[in-house]
Design goal:
With 779 residues, this protein is α+β, with helices and mostly antiparallel strands. Helix content is 31%, strand content 25%. It contains 14 helices and 32 strands. An eight-stranded mixed beta sheet has the order 1-2-3-4-8-7-6-5. Helix 11 packs across helix 12 and helix 13 packs across helix 14. It is elongated and about 195 Å long.
Length: 779
């Protein structure tokens, strides 16, 4: 216990963890019982930005950059820390009702944090699980100092109130959807919870939920101990971006694919390179990513439905186990606790390395290929708001990838003596600074395991794929070292990485004391084991040799702009270290001075390298911002050009359509005109009047001819004599004596006869004219 450092007197990252249990309500005190094996407890977390979060029993969260924690751990010896502090930001989430916080999990962006534990008020009342999501980005910093008040929202309150024995087994944020929380409870229900509206409305929405039915019995009640004890998201490689692995209490590994959250963003190149092998998968891709056809989008968001309308995603498994020859007889019993998944670069590059933690051992498995999408083809039920999905309902998958157990590391000197009921804290994590190392912890014992055979196995897998080799070389043994061994169980454990140096492991106890565990560097391990030197070369150590000349020149150019006001000259360093000309070779004082000088030089160069790293990161951010701006401009211009082209094409189509329509109309008019020539025209009103008049004239012609004949006869009679002595008209003659004086009446009669004769002549002329017109009309 003296290896742990007490909390410093001034406020820092860890000093709020030490809480007097007597000050908490009785129902809120931390109790070490069988429930600790049902839920994972870890009071330390880290987001993808490199910020560490620590929570205490009251739910207060403090954060600080992990780089400062690593620097703090390396500057001061962890075994002798008695003072000093890490400046931290304090968040004060508003919980109602209060509870005992046991676990914190920060989202990748650090905007949200999930805190869960156990609550319950009143004497004799059973403790229930409690889970909250706090919005750290919308915190109120109006209070004094760095304290920030945060808005919170309760998660699955109804489910915990309905069944008091339900516990939160694992909470993790979706790697591609920053505001989607994945939760596994002890009743075997796996949920995807959307937390976008926590800051505005203080509510969360359960998008999807599946009841993981391992044996297909559709159980109504929750088991005493959960059948599914942990889950982990697969690395984003191929269909691994949509795969979730589950660990059962017997050590079997199951999987679900595809699992996608609404609004999750994926690179377009990842989606276009997915192997779509059947029509069902193609339909799912079209429904989930309708914008995939738009090549202008580098990142595509998922439009996943709120619930499955058809067959649900199948729980595939258990994956068939295979063991290496040296692993025969090392089957795991029902004591599985946790799993963690990493990428396996051997073979086709789509496999995974799975580390499963048991009560007394760590098993390392290889999954050589990715999990394919599958939906339930057998019976399934929907009840209580979630869908029963069974492990034997994945008939659409012809062959599941195998789970090959490559290595087993016993964590206890006497295998089988570590009882599961005695496990109060368990954790297994991959080292973010070294991909071959995994950290395992049971209660208060922390182990560092370097898988020296992993690079050899990956190279052998590549050779077998490229050269069709069937036999692999013998693998070296892993290097295991105990970093910490105390009796009391830990409260939190998390490995921190540094891009310029080896990482540290933060170990936190329940009394508030902590220790920075510094794992041995790979170079030191290589010196102690000849098997590691040649076959297993660290990927981290090989990176500087792979830098191109252009990259080194860019870094050198950036380094020239770094401030050197903190650098000391060699003379100043030697003077501070106490090196002078009178020193002798091999003298203890000389050696101490040289060691001090070397440490100072190392510190200067590490600080200088970190400054260069900051400049590179700042320049990268500026370039990224400029590239993003230019991409936005190009996208806008491209969109405008595409719109103009579309409008131009639409206008051309309309013109061509109008021309075609015009030609059709002209052809129809010509055809109609030809047809109208052959159809008798109906008479107009004037033509009808003229026709009636002509018919009347034709009817009057015989009468007129008769009258003309009569008049002709009378005219002939009247004109037989040329003199003026007309005695009678017609056959009658009138004779007058000579010298007879006519009377006035005779003169009137004579005058009338003369006028009648003129009229008759005029009528005869008109009659001839009418006859000529009639003849011309009917010719």
């Amino acid at each position: 216990d003296d290896m742990f450092a007490p909390a410093p007197s001034s406020p820092s990252l860890f000093d709020h963890v030490a809480v007097d249990d007597a000050r908490l309500p009785r129902a809120h005190q931390r109790v070490d019982d069988i429930e600790s094996a049902m839920s994972r407890t870890n009071a330390v977390s880290e987001d993808e930005r490199g910020v560490v979060y620590v929570v205490n029993a009251r739910g207060e969260i403090r954060s600080t950059p992990s780089r400062d924690v690593v620097s703090y751990a390396r500057d001061v010896d962890a075994s002798t820390i008695t003072s000093g502090c890490l400046p931290a930001t304090r968040y004060l989430p508003q919980y109602a009702p209060t509870f005992v916080a046991e676990h914190v999990c920060a989202s990748p962006s650090g905007r949200l944090a999930c805190v869960h534990g156990r609550g319950g008020e009143g004497a004799g009342e059973r403790r229930r699980a409690a889970c909250y999501v706090a919005c750290l980005s919308a915190s109120d910093s109006s209070t004094a100092g760095s304290d920030r008040t945060c808005v919170t929202a309760r998660v699955c309150e109804d489910a915990f109130e309905a069944v008091a024995s339900t516990r939160v087994v694992r909470c993790a944020w979706h790697p591609n959807a920053d505001a989607t929380l994945a939760m596994l409870t002890s009743d075997g229900v796996f949920r995807l919870i959307n937390c976008d509206d926590v800051a505005s409305s203080g509510k969360v929405v359960v998008e999807k939920s599946w009841r993981l039915d391992i044996d297909g019995s559709f159980p109504e009640s929750s088991p005493v101990r959960p059948d599914v004890v942990d889950f982990a998201f697969a690395p984003a490689n191929g269909w691994g971006a949509f795969t979730v692995y589950f660990l059962t209490k017997s050590g079997d590994v199951h999987g679900m694919c595809p699992v996608v959250a609404r609004g999750a963003k994926y690179p377009r190149v990842t989606l276009t390179n997915l192997a779509v092998e059947n029509e069902t998968t193609a339909m799912w891709m079209d429904d989930t990513f309708p914008d995939l056809s738009d090549k202008r989008l580098p990142v595509v968001a998922a439009h996943a439905a709120a619930s499955d309308t058809g067959a649900p995603v199948a729980l595939q498994g258990p994956l068939p186990r295979r063991q290496a020859p040296r692993m025969a007889g090392s089957d795991a019993e029902e004591d599985a606790l946790e799993l963690t998944v990493s990428a396996f670069s051997g073979g086709g590059g789509s496999g995974n390395v799975v580390a499963t933690l048991h009560a007394g051992a760590v098993h390392i498995h290889i999954i050589p290929s990715e999990l394919k999408p599958a939906w339930c083809e057998g019976p399934f039920q929907n009840m209580r708001g979630y869908t029963f999905t069974m492990s034997n309902a994945s008939a659409s998958v012809e062959e599941l990838p195998s789970l090959m157990t490559v290595d087993t590391i016993q964590l206890s000197s006497s295998p089988g003596t570590q009882s599961l009921a005695k496990v109060q804290f368990a954790s297994v994590r991959w080292d973010p600074a070294l991909r071959e190392r995994v950290f395992a912890c049971i209660n208060g014992v922390v182990h560092s395991i370097i898988l020296t055979w992993l690079p050899v196995l990956e190279m052998a897998a590549e050779d077998m794929v490229d050269e069709n080799k069937n036999e692999a070389e013998s693998l070296p043994l892993p290097h295991v070292e105990t970093l910490c061994d105390v009796d009391a169980p830990l409260l939190g454990l998390h490995p921190l990485g540094d891009p310029l140096a080896e990482g540290v492991v933060v170990a936190l106890r329940r009394d508030g004391t902590y220790r920075m565990l510094i794992p041995p560097p790979v170079s030191a391990v290589a010196e102690t084991s000849s098997e590691i030197t040649t076959p297993s070369k660290s990927a981290v150590a090989m990176q500087p040799q792979m830098l191109e000349a252009s990259s080194r020149s860019e870094l050198r150019a950036l380094a020239e702009g770094v401030r050197r006001d903190k650098l000391k000259t060699i003379e100043e360093i030697m003077k501070d270290a106490g090196i002078d000309a009178d020193m002798k070779i091999g003298d203890q004082g000389s050696n101490e001075a040289l060691a001090k000088c070397a440490s100072a030089l190392k510190e200067i160069y590490v600080d200088y390298a970190r400054d260069v790293h900051d400049e590179v990161r700042t320049t990268a951010l500026r370039l990224q911002s400029e590239i993003k701006r230019q991409k936005d401009e190009v996208t806008a211009l491209l969109k405008s050009a595409n719109d103009a082209i579309e409008r131009h094409n639409m206008l051309i189509e309309r013109i061509e359509s109008a021309a075609t329509t015009h030609e059709d109309i002209r052809a129809k008019l010509r055809n109609l005109a030809e047809r109208e020539k052959k159809i008798p025209h109906p008479l107009t009103k004037a033509e009808k009047v003229l026709k009636a008049q002509m018919e009347a004239y034709n009817a009057d012609v015989p009468l007129i001819q008769q009258r003309i004949e009569e008049l002709s006869e009378r005219a002939a009679v009247a004109t037989e004599r040329e003199d003026d002595d007309i005695g009678y008209v017609g056959s009658r003659r009138v004779n007058g004596g000579a010298g007879h004086e006519p009377s006035a009446e005779d003169r009137n009669v004579r005058k009338a006869l003369i006028e009648q004769g003129e009229t008759i002549k005029s009528n005869v002329a008109k009659l001839k004219l009418i006859e000529e017109i009639i003849e011309q009309r009917y010719q």
